[in-house]
Design brief:
heterodimer; A: alpha/beta; Oxidized Rhodanese, domain 1; 2 domains; five-stranded parallel β-sheet; 41% helix; 9% strand; elongated; B: 2 domains; two-stranded antiparallel ribbon; 2 strands; 68% helix; 3% strand; globular
Chain lengths: 207, 196
C-alpha cells in the first residue's frame, strides 16, 4: 500500500468518525469568577414586587415572567403571563430563545429566591443578559401585593401611598385586598435597561 | 476556549499582526506548491496539472476536520466563528468574473502577490489590474449597489441548508475530494504536457 493510499484511507476514517459522533453542544461559561462576584454584590438583578405588579397591570409587552418551580406548583398557582421553565431543565435548547435574547426583560421567580437565583447564576454565567430575579419570590409577592398589611399610623406618607398602590394592585390581580384607593398610585417604576445582545464578530477574510 | 480573538483570549490589537504572520505563511506555502507559475495554475483548466485542485481541497478538508474535532473536544465554539454572509446573485456573477480573470491573467489575487514577490513581471501587471478593478468597482458602486446587495441569505452553512449534520457533510466532501483527486490524476495522464 502506497503512502498516498494510507493518507486517503486515514482521511476517510476521520470523516466517518466525525460523521458518526454527535455534534458538541456544550456551552462554555462566559463570565469569570471575579466578574460574577461583582455582579452578585451589585444585586442589580433584583426587581421589586411593586415594580412587577405595576408592569403586569399595565400589560407591559417587554415583561416576560419565568416560573422556575416544578410544573405541579406552576399548575396550582402562577403569576399572570408567566411561562414555566423548571430549574432542572433550564439548559434545554428549547428554552434558549426565551432565555438568551435582547428584546424582553425576563423576571425569574420561585417560592423564595433560592431557586430563582440559582437559575439566574447559571444563565448569567452563560453570558445571557436581561434576566432578573423577583425580590423575595412568590412568598414576598403574597405578603406585599396579594395581602398587603396596613402600615401603622405613625408611618410616613410614602408608606401609605405604597399601601394604597398594593391594595389597588391586589384588587386588579385577584388578591385579598379591596380596590379602595385613598391616594394616587406611585409613578411608573423605572425599569432596568434592556441590553441588546451583540454577537461578537471576527474580521472577514478571503483568498 | 477558541476562537481566540472573539473570546478575547488574544486581544483585538494582535489581530493584524497575527494576520500578517499567517499571511506570510500562506504565501510561502503557495510559492512552495508552485502556485507562482501561471502555467501551473492554468493547467487546472486544460487538465495537464491539477495541483491547484489538490492543494485547495486538501486545505478545505483539513480545516473542516480540524474545526469539527476541535469543537468535539470543546476547544472551539463554532457559533462564534465568523461566517461570510451569502449574497447569491452577486456571488454567482462575481465568481464568473473571478474565473474569467483567473484564466485570462493566469493568477488569482493571492497567487499574483506571491508571484510578484519572486519578481514575476506579469504578476505585477496583474496586481495593477486588481487595483484598476477595485477603482472601477468603487466608482460604479452606486449603479450596481442594488444588485450587489441582492439575494441576501445571511450567514449560511451548506450542511444547515441541506439539513444534514456538519460531520456527515464533511465526510461527503472528503469522498468527493478523493474522487476528484483520482480524476485529476487521470486527466494529467490523458492530456500530458512535458514542459510548462
Amino acid at each position: 500500500m502506497t503512502i498516498k493510499n494510507v493518507i486517503f484511507l486515514g482521511l476517510i476514517f476521520l470523516g466517518v468518525v466525525i460523521a458518526m459522533v454527535p455534534e458538541n453542544t456544550t456551552k462554555p461559561y462566559k463570565l469569570t469568577a471575579e466578574q460574577m462576584l461583582v455582579e452578585v454584590q451589585g444585586a442589580a438583578e433584583m426587581v421589586s414586587t411593586d415594580e412587577v405588579a405595576q408592569w403586569i397591570i399595565s400589560k407591559d409587552p417587554s415583561l416576560q415572567l419565568i416560573d422556575v418551580r416544578n410544573p405541579d406548583e406552576f399548575q396550582k398557582y402562577h403569576l399572570e403571563g408567566a411561562v414555566n421553565i423548571p430549574l432542572s431543565v433550564i439548559l434545554n435548547d428549547e428554552y434558549r430563545d426565551i432565555l438568551d435574547q435582547g428584546v424582553k426583560m425576563n423576571v425569574l421567580y420561585s417560592n423564595g429566591t433560592l431557586n430563582s437565583h440559582q437559575a439566574w447564576m447559571i444563565l448569567r454565567q452563560l453570558g445571557f443578559r436581561n434576566n432578573y430575579v423577583l425580590q423575595g419570590g412568590l412568598n414576598y409577592w403574597f405578603d406585599t401585593i396579594m395581602n398587603p398589611q396596613a402600615p401603622s399610623i405613625y408611618s410616613p406618607d410614602e408608606e401609605f401611598a405604597k399601601y394604597d398602590f398594593r391594595k389597588a394592585a391586589s384588587g386588579a390581580l385577584g388578591g385579598g385586598g379591596s380596590a379602595v384607593v385613598t391616594a394616587p398610585a406611585q409613578g411608573t417604576a423605572e425599569k432596568p435597561k434592556i441590553v441588546r445582545t451583540q454577537k461578537k464578530k471576527a474580521p472577514a477574510g478571503g483568498c | 476556549m477558541g476562537p481566540l480573538v472573539p473570546q478575547e483570549i488574544i486581544g483585538m490589537n494582535w489581530n493584524l499582526l497575527i494576520a500578517f504572520v499567517v499571511g506570510i505563511g500562506f504565501g510561502f506555502v503557495l510559492e512552495q506548491a508552485g502556485f507562482s507559475s501561471s502555467r501551473k495554475l492554468a493547467g487546472m483548466f486544460y487538465g495537464y496539472d491539477t495541483v491547484v485542485l489538490k492543494v485547495f481541497f486538501t486545505g478545505a478538508i483539513t480545516a473542516m476536520l480540524g474545526l469539527l474535532f476541535f469543537s468535539l473536544f470543546g476547544w472551539i465554539d463554532l457559533s462564534l466563528v465568523y461566517v461570510n454572509p451569502t449574497f447569491l446573485g452577486s456571488t454567482i456573477v462575481g465568481g464568473i468574473i473571478m474565473g474569467a480573470g483567473f484564466i485570462l491573467g493566469g493568477f488569482c489575487p493571492g497567487t499574483s502577490v506571491c508571484a510578484a514577490a519572486i519578481g514575476k513581471i506579469d504578476a505585477m501587471v496583474f496586481i495593477g489590474g486588481i487595483f484598476l478593478g477595485v477603482f472601477f468597482f468603487a466608482e460604479s458602486y452606486p449603479m450596481i449597489e442594488d444588485f450587489y446587495m441582492s439575494g441576501s441569505l445571511g450567514s449560511l452553512k451548506v450542511h444547515e441548508v441541506f439539513g444534514i449534520s456538519g460531520g456527515f457533510f464533511t465526510l461527503l466532501v472528503i469522498i468527493a475530494a478523493l474522487i476528484m483527486f483520482k480524476l485529476g490524476e487521470l486527466a494529467e495522464k490523458r492530456w500530458p504536457r512535458e514542459e510548462y
